[in-house]
Amino acid sequence: MPAIDIPFFGNLVLCLILVSAAYTLAMALGAARGRPHLLVAARHGTFATCALVVLSVVLLAYAFQTHDFRIRYVARYSDRSMPWWYLFTSLWGGQDGSLLWWTFLLAGYTTAVTRWLRGRFIELQPWVLATLMSIIAFFAILMLFAANPFATTVGVAPSDGEGLNPLLQNYWMVIHPPSLYMGFVGWAVPFAFVVAALVTGRLHDEWVNAARLWAMIAWTFLSIGLLLGCLWSYEELGWGGYWAWDPVENASFMPWLVGTAYIHSAIVQERYGMLKVWNVFLMCLTFFMTIFGTFLTRSGMIASVHSFARSDIGIYFVYYMVFLIILCGALIVWRLPKLRGEHKIESLLSREFMFLLNNWMFIGIMIFVLVATTWPLITEWFRGEQVTVGPAFYNEWMVPFGLILLFLTGVGPLVAWRKATGKNLSRAFRAPVAASMVAVLAHLGLGDMFGFPALVVPDQLYDTLTGKALAAFHTIAPLLSSTVCAFVATAVLQEFVRGTRVRMKSKGESMWRALTQLISRARRRYGGYLVHLGIIVMYVGFTGAVYDTEREAALYPGASLEVGDYELRYDGPRSDADPNKSMTFTDMTVFDLDGDDIGRVSPAKFVYRTNPEQPTTEVAIRSNAIEDLYVIMSTVDGESRRATFRVIVRPLVSWIWLGGIILVLGAVLAMWPSAKDVLDRQQQVKDRKKRGRARKAAAAVSLLAALSMGGLDPPTVAAQADSSSSLHAGTVEMNGPEERHLFGRLLCQCGACQRLPLDNCICDWAESRRAELRARMANGEPVADLIASFRAQHGSASISIPSDAGMDRALWAVPLVLFVLAAGGVFLLGRKWRAKGAAAPGVTESEIASAGEADKDYDDALEEELRRLEER
Amino acid sequence: MSTFLPWLLITGAVAAFLFALGNLWASFRAAFGGTDGEVHGLVEAASRRALFEEKDTLLRQLSELRFDRDGGKISDADFEALDQKLRARAKQVLRLIDSDVAPFISEAEERIRERLGFEAAPYRQSAKPVSHEEESDADAQDEDAQDEPPKRRRKTKKSKPSRSTRSAEDPQDDPDEPESAGLDCPECETVNDADAVFCKKCGHRFESAADGSDDAEDAASEDDDAAEEANP
User: Fold this and answer.
1) Which of A127, A462, A506, A748 could disulfide-link A753, Cβ–Cβ 3.0 to 4.6 Å?
2) CA distance, residue A807 to nearest chain B CA (Å)
C-alpha cells in the first residue's frame, strides 16, 4: 500500500471542512440578502463541503483497512484479526468516529436536499443551506477540538490494536447504528426548512410542504433504527427482552415521539392553516431532542450500557443546545404575529381536536420519559446522589399512556373534520365498538383456554396506594389491550372498506381495482393507516409479555427441564474455535407436550481473543407466530459438564417484528413518489437520468426494507450464528424467580459497573452481596425488607426503582401533573377556539367572494385537469 | 478484498477531492459573477416549478376533498366552502402558468403556421396570445397598463400572486390590503409573485421582499445593496 500520512491529511481535511462550511454559510447568508449569484455559489460550496466530508470518511476507512495504528481511534477500535467488514463498521464503533459518521450522513442528506432544491423554494433555499452548513460546521469544530478521529497515539504506534468490542462484532452493527443515525440526522433537514421559514417570514404551508418528504424519511429511518435496536437487543444481548428503557434507547425514542406528533399536526396545518406555532415548535423540539439525545450518549453524564465514556464533548453540546433554545425561541417569538392560525377549531368533536389530543399524548409520554431518563441528574443536583430508574418503572407507567394513545389512533380517523354530527359518529363508531365488544367477550370467555387470560395479577411496583392502583390497572391491562386493539384495527380496516365502497359506487370499479386505486391515489393517507395497523400488531406483541413463562435450572447432561409446552433435554457441552474466538455450545433437544422431538437449540458462550475477560452470551431462539422459546446458558462447568440455563417462553414476540414490517411498508407507501411526480421531473430535467435515479432510490428503499424484513422475520433463529453479545447477561446463576425479582431491583455499587443490576453483574462485589442476600433469604427475610435494608445501607441510588415517597414521588407525580394540566389546557384551548370558531368559519365570505370573481374560462380547464388526475 | 479495498478507497478519496475542488472553483466563479446563465436558469426554473407543483397539490387537495365528502368525512357546507376556496386558487395558478407559457405557445403556433400554412387551434382561449382587438379591449379595462408593451400588459392583467403569497392576499391576515397583482421587474419587466425575492426571468433582486422582514433599517441597507448590484 502507498505510504500516506493519514493523520496529517485527515486533520487537514477536517480543517478544510470547517473552512468550506464557513465559506458556504457566508455565501448562503449573502444569497439570503438578495444576491442570486451567491445562491449558486452557496450550492456549489455545499457540494464541495459534503465532498470533503466524504473524503475524510474515506481517509479514516483507509486507515482502518491498512491498520494505521498511529491513529489513536484506529488502535482502540480495531486489530489485525478483524475482517474487512468489521474494520468498516469500526468507523462508527467509537465516539470520535461516530461523530464523523454523523457528519457524513448529514453531508449525504445535505447533498440530497441541495440537489432536490434545485428549482424549488428559491426564497427558503439560502437559509436552508445556511442552517445545514452551520450544523456541519458545529460537528467539524467538535471533531477538531474535542473528539478528533485522526488524533495520533502518544509515543510509538502499537503493533496491533485493541480490537472492536465483541458486543459490536455482529451484523446488527452493520445496519442498526447507520439506520438510527439516518433517523437522527435526517431531522436536521426539516429543521432547516423551519428556520428558513421563520427567518424569511414565509410561514404558510410552504415550509410544511417542503419539509414533508424529509420528515417522513427521517421518521422512517428512526423507526427502522428503533426496531432494529429491539431486534439486536432481543437476539444478541441475551437478557431476554427487546427494550430496556436504557437512557440511550430513550434518547432515540424521544425524538421519535415528538417527530410523530409533528407528522400528525402538520396535516391540520396543511388542511386548515391551523396549529402553525405548534408545528414550528414541534419541529424545533424534534431537532433539539436529537441533539439532546446525542448529548446524553456522548457526555457520559448518565450511566448507560450504550454510553461512550465520560468525555469533554458534553460541554460543546450544552453550548449548542443553549444556542438552539435561544435561536428557536427568539425566532418563534419574533414571528408570533405571522404564526396566527387562519381558522379555529369549531367543535371538540372534530378531527382537528383529535389531532390535538394525539399530540398531547405524544408530548406527555415524551415528558414522562424525559423526566425518568434525566432523574439521575435531577437527583444529583438536588440530593447529591444519582438515583437510577429501572425498566420496571417505565413498563409499569407507560402501559396506561400507550393504551390511551392507541385508542386515539383509532378514534381520530373516525371523526369528521370541522364538526362531527351524531349521525356520522354513530355510523363511524358502530363497527369498531361492536368489534371491541366481541373482543372483550372472546378474551374473557376463551382467553384462559388458549393460555391468554384476560386478567393477570402483576407484581406490585410500590407498597403504596399508587402501587395498588397501578397493579389494579395492570390486572385488567391485557383485556383493555385486546379491546382497544380490536377497536382500532376495525376502525382502520373500516377506512379501507368505506373508501373502496365510495370508489366502487362513484367510479363503477370492481372491488379489487377500487381498493388498489384507493391506495395508489391517496398513498399518504392509506400509508398512514397501514402504519397504524403496524402499531396495532406491535401492541399485540407487547401485550404478549404479560404471559411470559420463565424457568431456571442447573442440569447435567441427560437431564430435562419443562417450560410451558416444551421439554428441553440437555445433551452436553461442545467446544469450537476460530481465529477470533473460542466457543462453548450447550446442545439441547426440544420436545413438545406429546414427547415429539421438534428441534435442537444450542445456547453458547463466546470468548474473544481481544476481550477474554468479557465472555459473551449467545442465546438460542425458536420462534413461531404464537411464541418464542428463548434459551440462555448462564454458566457451564468444563469438568462436571453441569450447565445452568434460563429458559423463557415469550408469547407473541413475532407480532412485534411483523408489526414493524407493516409499519415500515406503510411509511414507504406514504412517501412513495407518484409516477406522475417522476414523469414531471423527467420533463423538467434530464429524462433518463432522473428515471434511473428514481429507480435507484426505489431500489435502495426496497433493499433497506428487504434487509429489515430479512432480519425481522426469522422462522427459527440461530442467534449465535455470527454474533456476540451481551451485558454479561445470563452469566449469573439464579435460584428462582424470587431471587431474580430481588436482584433485579438492586444495583451494583462497586463503582466500576455501570448501572448493572445484581442479577446481571458478575463483579466480585456483586457476587459477595448476592451470597449475603441469599443467606438472609434462606433465613426467611421477606424480599421487601431485603430491598429496604440494601437501600438503607447503600443509599437510594442502589435501587433500580425509586420509592414512592418524598422527592422520589416527584418522578411520576410531576410528569403526571403536567400531563393532566396539559389535558386541561388542550380542552380549554379547544373550547376557546370553538367559541371564536363559530364567528370565524373555515372559509370567509371575502374568500368566497374572491373565488367567485374568477373568470369562467378556467372552470372548464380546472375540471379537465381534475378529470385527467382521476384517469391517471 | 482486503488488498483491493485500500486501492478502491484511494480512488474514492481522489475522486472526492477532485469533486470538492471542482465545486469550490464553480462556487468562486459564481460568487464573482461568472455564471449568469446558471443564476437566471435557477431562478426561472424555481418560479415555474413552484407553479406546477402548486397546481398538482391543489388538484390533489380538491380530489381528496371530494373523496372526503363522498365518504361522509366532511359536511356539505364545509365541502362547498373549502372547494370554492381551493378552486379559486387553482384557477389563479392555471392563469399564472398560462401567462408563463404564453410566449412559448405563440412561438409554437407561429412555427406551426409557417410549417403547415394554416392557423393551429388555440391551446386554451385565455392562454392564446392577445390579438390587437383584444388588446384594445384589455386596454380599455386596464388603464394602468396603457403605456406598457402588449406582451407585458397581457401578463399584468392575468398575473396573480402565487400560493406562497397567500399571506398578502388572505383577507384574514390583512383585510384592508388589496389583492396584489405581483411585482414588476425593473430590469426585464416580467411580472413576478408579490413576495418574490428574485425576478424569475433575470434574477434581479426586489428590495421590498428581500429579507422577508418588516424592519425598515434592513430594507434601507438592502436598497444600498441593490444599488450596488445594479451599478457594480
Assistant:
1) A748
2) 48
pLDDT at A607 over 80: yes
Which member of B24, B48, B64 has the closest CB to residue A522? B64
What are the grid coordinates assigned to A76, written together?
482502540
Q: If you average pLDDT over each of A486-495, A604-613, B89-98, which comes out highest?
A: A486-495
DSSP chain B: -TTHHHHHHHHHHHHHHHHHHHHHHHHHHHHTT--HHHHHHHHHHHHHHHHHHHHHHHHHHHHHHHHHHHTTSS-HHHHHHHHHHHHHHHHHHHHHHHHHHHHHHHHHHHHHHHHHSSPPPPS-GGGSPPPHHHHHHHHHH-GGGTTS-HHHHHHHHH----GGGHHHH-TTT-TTSPPP--EE-TTT--EE-TT-SB-TTT-PBPSTTSSS---HHHHHHHHHHHHHHH--
Position B56 scores a pLDDT of 81
Rounded Cα gap, residues A433 and A415, in angstroms: 14
Cα A133 off chain centre by: 26
| Maximum distance among all Cα pairs of chain A, rounded to whole angstroms | 94
Query: Residue A457 — pLDDT band, cuts 50, 70, 90?
Result: confident
Task: Spell out the residues 6+ positions from residue A729 whose beta carbon is closer than 8 angstroms to its own.
Answer: A237, A238, A239, A240, A617, A632, A760
Q: How much is the ipTM here?
A: 0.78
Lowest mean pLDDT among A21-35, A539-553, B154-168: B154-168
pLDDT in tens, B204-227: 777 654 444 444 344 334 444 433
Instruction: Quote the strand ranges of A637-678, DSSP E.
Output: 643-651
- Whose cell is 448462564? That residue is A634
pLDDT (mean) for A610-622? 84
**Mutation for B interface: A16, A19, A35, most B CBs within 10 A:** A35
Rounded to whole angstroms, what are the CA distances from B136 to A659, B128, B131, B132, B142? 67, 15, 9, 6, 10
What secondary structure does DSSP assign to A45-71, as a single string? HHHHHHHHHHHHHHHHHHHHHTT-TTB
Do residue B75 and residue A418 have CB atoms under 8 angstroms apart?
Answer: yes
CA distance A114 to A44: 9
Closest by Cβ to B222, choosing from A27, A33, A62: A33
CA distance A86 to A91: 9
- Secondary structure class of A646 (helix, strand, coil): strand
Spatial distance between the Cα atoms of A318 and B43, rounded to a whole number of angstroms: 39
How far CA A152 is from CA of A8, A77, A155, in Å, comes to 9, 13, 9
DSSP 3-state of A635: strand
Average pLDDT of chain B, as a whole number: 64
pLDDT of residue B76: 79
Q: Is A605 helix (H, G, I), strand (E, B) or coil?
A: strand
Beta strands in A660-789, from DSSP E residues, in sequence order: 716-717
What are the grid coordinates assigned to A842, written together?
A: 373555515
A508: left (phi over 0), alpha (psi -120 to 50) or beta: left
C-alpha cell at A673: 413518489
- Is it true that the peptide bond before A307 is cis, omega within 30 degrees of 0? no
Q: Could you tell me the pTM of the whole model?
A: 0.80
Local structure of A581: helix, strand or coil? strand
Query: What one-letter code names the amino acid at B185?
Result: C
Chain B interface test: which of A47, A122, A683 (most B C-beta within 10 Å) = A122
User: What's the confidence (pLDDT) of residue A732?
Assistant: 65
- C-alpha cell belonging to residue B52: 406546477
Which cell is A432 given? 369498531
User: Of B9, B45, B225, which is closest to A119 when you measure between CB atoms?
Assistant: B45
- Among A333-337, A802-806, A812-816, the range scoring the smallest mean pLDDT is A802-806
Q: How confident is the model at residue A277 (pLDDT cuts 50, 70, 90)?
A: very high
User: What secondary structure letter does DSSP report for A809?
Assistant: G
Hey, what's the cell of A183? Answer: 433517523
